[in-house]
Amino acid sequence: MERQDKAEGSDWAVDVDEMISWLRESSVEDLADRGLSVEGTFDEVDDPVLLGPGGKPVRSWREDHAYEERMSKEEYESTKRLLQIELLKAQTWLAETGRRLVIGFDGRDAAGKGGTIKRFIEHLNPRGFRVVALPAPSATEKGQWFFQRYVNHLPTSGEIVLFDRSWHNRAVVEPVMGFCSPEEYEEFMRAAPLFEEMLHNSGIVLIKFWFSVSRLEQLTRFTIRRIDPVRQWKLSPNDLASLDMWDDYTHYKEQMFRRTHHPHGPWTVVSSNDKKRGRIEAMRVVLNQLDYPGRDESVVKQPDPLIVGPPTLS
């Protein structure tokens, strides 16, 4: 990627290295002095917009995106409601048939995983699903088989479990940040497809999402987190430490796709620069994997191949 970019649709020239420096060193007041602000933090809490100098929206989401315009709020809300009704039908079917569903939400920081999970579960029966977001392993867990703490959270009969970062954290985040040894990494890459085949053979439906966000859009979202007081907790020390590790993340992501994309656990990549389109198409991916009765094909449709699809394997 080029080191100097202009965020399309605004008059703000963005230098990646300078932006990283701002995020690490600047206060909220410093960013305001540079003319940066955020709108949409109250009426549309999960989709705020960064405004550059002059008050124009920063359109970094257009970087490498298939569409010229974001999905409108009206289309998004109406489509989301219909898909959430379909998700309820699917949940009822899972409960009645005793089937089990695991959905993994992985991806770069600020790629939209948490917001998508929120929309998935917004109207589901809370007795039939769990969201699992594991913290750093305890001393006891570090001494266990790596997959053990994930196994403890797998669904029972009729249940949905959504992992906010799955075991594939070891494939990308841990080696980049130095949280695992090369030997532990290699063992994981060898074992992960076997573990997922075991899940498949036990009757668990496994869906693996990787949420993809472009470099500039990730930095825009981090800047929003720096400015917006209700989001500042989302900008963690690990986020700041990883800001100049983009290429390392890309390398390990590509290795993960090459070595863990298999028939019993295929990856689906979600282009999430436009969060609304990403959420809608991720819902469609899940619904198309479940053979529940009463499906409204006019709502579910086939997922948009410009937004979701298999990874490109090198």
What does this structure look like?
- By secondary structure, the protein is α/β, with parallel strands linked by helices.
- The chain has a domain of 215 residues: Rossmann fold (3-Layer(aba) Sandwich).
- Strands 6-7-5-8-9-10 form a six-stranded mixed sheet, sandwiched between helices. A two-stranded antiparallel sheet has the order 1-2. Strands 3-4 form a two-stranded antiparallel ribbon.
- Strand 1 and strand 2 form a beta hairpin.
- Helix 4 packs across helix 12.
- The radius of gyration is 20 Å and the shape is globular.
- 33% of the residues are buried.
- The N terminus is likely disordered.
Topology (elements, then pairings):
Elements: E1 4-6, E2 13-15, H1 16-25, H2 28-33, E3 37-39, E4 49-51, H3 73-97, E5 100-107, H4 113-121, E6 129-132, H5 139-142, H6 148-151, E7 160-164, H7 173-177, H8 182-201, E8 204-212, H9 215-227, H10 237-241, H11 246-260, E9 267-271, H12 275-288, H13 297-300, E10 308-309
